[in-house]
Description:
Order of helices and strands: HEEEHEEE
Largest sheet: 3 strands, mixed
Distance between the termini: 22 Å
Structural class: alpha/beta
Strand content: 5-15%
Shape: globular
Amino acid sequence: MVGNLPGTVEIFNNPSYAVSSHFGIAQDGSVWQFGPIGHGWIAWAQVAGNEAWYSIEHADDGNTANPLTDSQLTASAQLVEVLSRFAGFPLQVTNSVEIEGLHSVWRGPGRHTCRPGPGRQRPRSSGPS
């Protein structure tokens, strides 16, 4: 997310934006779930991707060059581990959307980007969505 959790919640709650994600993680590590898991719901973040992908947005205070906080990294790791157990994808990083695992687009330690490419976390699974 470009910004912080309250603004993202406001945007996600406005259908005219046609945007959504499965989860959002604030700088303090609090995790918000925006859609159901295991019920076929597809977030707009994944609308052009695989229906079994899960999207995790990270608050950045409006600056994609801001590093993720330690709390965000910890919450992300815990969330991905739980999703892996639920959906059955392996805890491995891959740069291919054809290989199950964590599709990562990190720009370096703690850095992230909102543009597609190396940096954003997008777990992919052939299991339940």
